[in-house]
Design brief:
The complex is a heterodimer of chains A (286) and B (209).
Chain A lengths: L4 E9 L2 E6 L2 E7 L1 H11 L4 E5 L10 H9 L6 E4 L5 H10 L3 E4 L1 H5 L2 H10 L4 E10 L2 E6 L4 E6 H11 L3 E6 L11 H8 L6 E4 L5 H9 L5 E4 L1 H7 L16 H4 L17 H10 L7
Parallel strand pairs in A: 1-4, 1-12, 4-5, 5-6, 6-7, 7-10, 10-11, 11-12
Antiparallel strand pairs in A: 1-2, 2-3, 7-8, 8-9
Helix pairs in contact in A: 1-2, 8-11
Chain B lengths: L4 E4 L7 H9 L4 E4 L2 H6 L2 E4 L5 H10 L3 H10 L3 E4 L1 H5 L1 E4 L5 E2 L4 E7 L12 E6 L1 E2 L16 E6 L1 E5 L5 E7 L2 E9 L2 E4 L7 H13 L1
Parallel strand pairs in B: 1-2, 1-3, 3-4, 4-14, 5-7
Antiparallel strand pairs in B: 5-6, 7-11, 8-10, 9-12, 12-13, 13-14
The chains are: A alpha/beta (286), B alpha/beta (209).
Chain lengths: 286, 209
């Protein structure tokens, strides 16, 4: 039986795993590869890395992080952030990514998706949409929610598939990091209007949110961060060498003593989420 | 283990993750397009993602078709993965009718939407395999029936001869051949190199055949 995919999403800044609110106000949680390996062992179906500052090259670059991760995890890894041309796609795939998420660059250069799909197959091109509800319309944003476009999210989603995207990652900027649940209406509107799988992202704080976006939002896969990060952070203890960036408060105050979002967040293991989904008759991989 | 393992590089997809898994299980391998090396290999892995006709054109352009067919006649093991499995068959209907390597008789067909129109094409994600119960296959040794593997594909293989089916999987209303075996030729529609420990086990079995 085909299973719904549960995908921890890891936002990366420099060498660190970070977490923000509305894709901003980043706090440092640890090293991405430590979390990736823990999630792999814990039963994650896939992983997503998004580079918050889009630094593919240079010091502490994303390619090195991907390489280091790929040596030890044998499930699919999607990587996004700062992908501008076919060479960037190629370099990420060679470093160990299975799929590349493309967002900002497609706005000015829509053929990048087509070129990527032609060169490497559409199965490794993930069209990424960051969406905000404005005056009851879903509008596409880029540059980690900093830049507004005039594009309608549902039309843009269809366009991305037409251009060659094999899958879509739909992130609600409004919900992201708030723990108030996924943007159900947006996800359903896109999922029902495209032929390819849709990964819902942004807002999960408990297993109920995840079942809701699958049942009502028609998501084919779910990406989630805080719900997992704050659960596993306690057992991941690579405290060494944190770069002087981001907000280190979480780490310095000892992992696990989380005040932020505490009222809403029900940090869970991947298995706890899957067990809950099974009670809702949602098929998950053991 | 010091078997000579060749991962065929013909410009279609991510070969490095297969090599990474082989490294993990302590097996050296070489990624190459050199036809001479194919013939001296003890294990040949044909990976691949993307379109069937482009893959065959690339194999043709690199003069790899005859060496692969010759290698297969020697009787040493071949493993086709995903598109690499599809290439083992006689023909595909992807973007027109195209001939394959014809090592296993059969065709490659596109998924159709189910009657309730609930599935997405491509199939992306984890699905279970059903092993056939009338035969034991070394490649699936130690793998439980119903084990999950990672799939990403719009087309699937249909062997002419049911004997060549090693395992099946259901997607939408279609039950398809998710793994094939004929003599020294093996194929998986799923990606063992992306299927966690259950996939690592298959690659280990392939090396140990």
């Amino acid at each position: 039986m085909h299973a719904v995919r549960i995908i921890p999403r890891l936002d990366i800044k420099g060498p660190n795993l970070v977490k923000g609110v509305h894709l901003e106000g980043l706090r440092v949680l640890g090293k991405p590869w430590d979390f990736a390996y823990t999630y792999y062992k814990a039963g994650a179906d896939e992983l997503i890395y998004i580079d918050a500052v889009a630094s593919l090259y240079g010091r502490n670059n994303l390619l090195d992080i991907v390489r280091k991760t790929a040596e030890q995890i044998f499930i699919p890894l999607t990587v996004g952030g700062g992908v501008r041309n076919v060479d960037d796609i190629k370099n990420l795939l060679r470093a160990g990514a299975d799929k590349v998420a493309i967002n900002t660059a497609v706005i000015t250069n829509p053929t990048l998706i087509t070129e990527g799909a032609m060169a490497f197959g559409s199965q490794c091109i993930v069209g990424s949409l960051q969406v905000k509800k404005i005056n009851n319309k879903y509008i596409v944003f880029t540059d980690n929610a900093r830049e507004r476009t005039e594009l309608d999210a549902i039309e843009w989603a269809q366009k991305l598939v037409e251009l060659g995207a094999g899958e879509l990652l739909v992130t609600s900027i409004d919900q992201e990091g708030t723990g108030r649940g996924y943007e159900v209406e947006l996800t359903r509107a896109i999922a029902q209007n495209v032929s390819v799988p849709v990964i819902a992202c942004g807002g999960a704080a408990n297993p109920e949110h995840i079942s809701e976006i699958i049942i009502n939002g028609k998501a084919d896969a779910v990406a989630a961060s805080s719900i997992f990060h704050y659960k596993y952070a306690e057992q991941i203890n690579s405290m060494e060498q944190f770069a002087e960036e981001g907000n280190l408060a979480f780490i310095k105050n000892a992992r696990g003593s989380l005040v932020f979002m505490q009222d809403r967040l029900k940090a869970s293991t991947i298995n706890e989420v899957k067990e809950y989904l099974k009670t809702k008759n949602i098929i998950c991989r053991k | 283990m010091s078997k000579k393992v060749i991962i065929l590089d013909y410009g279609m997809g991510n070969l490095f993750n297969i090599q990474r898994v082989l490294n993990y299980i302590g097996v050296e391998s070489e990624i190459t397009i050199d036809a001479n090396k194919i013939l001296t290999a003890e294990r040949l892995i044909i990976p691949g993602v993307g379109a069937f006709d482009q893959a065959m054109n690339n194999l043709k352009g690199q003069n790899l078709i005859e060496p692969i067919q010759e290698y297969s006649k020697i009787g040493r093991p071949i493993l086709g993965i995903c598109l690499g499995m599809q290439l083992l068959f006689s023909e595909s209907s992807e973007f027109g009718l195209h001939s394959g390597l014809d090592l296993i008789k059969g065709s490659v067909l596109k998924f159709e939407y189910d009657k309730d129109n609930t599935i997405k094409i491509p199939q992306i994600g984890w699905n279970t395999i059903s092993k056939r119960n009338d035969k034991k296959h070394q490649l699936l040794s130690g793998i439980d029936d119903g084990t999950y593997y990672y799939f990403i594909h719009s087309y699937f293989c249909k062997p002419d001869n049911d004997e060549d089916i090693m395992a099946t999987t259901i997607y939408g209303d279609t039950t398809f051949c998710s793994a094939t075996h004929k003599n020294n030729i093996w194929g998986c529609q799923f990606h063992p190199e992306r299927s966690g420990e259950a996939g690592v086990k298959i690659l280990k079995n392939f090396i140990n055949l």
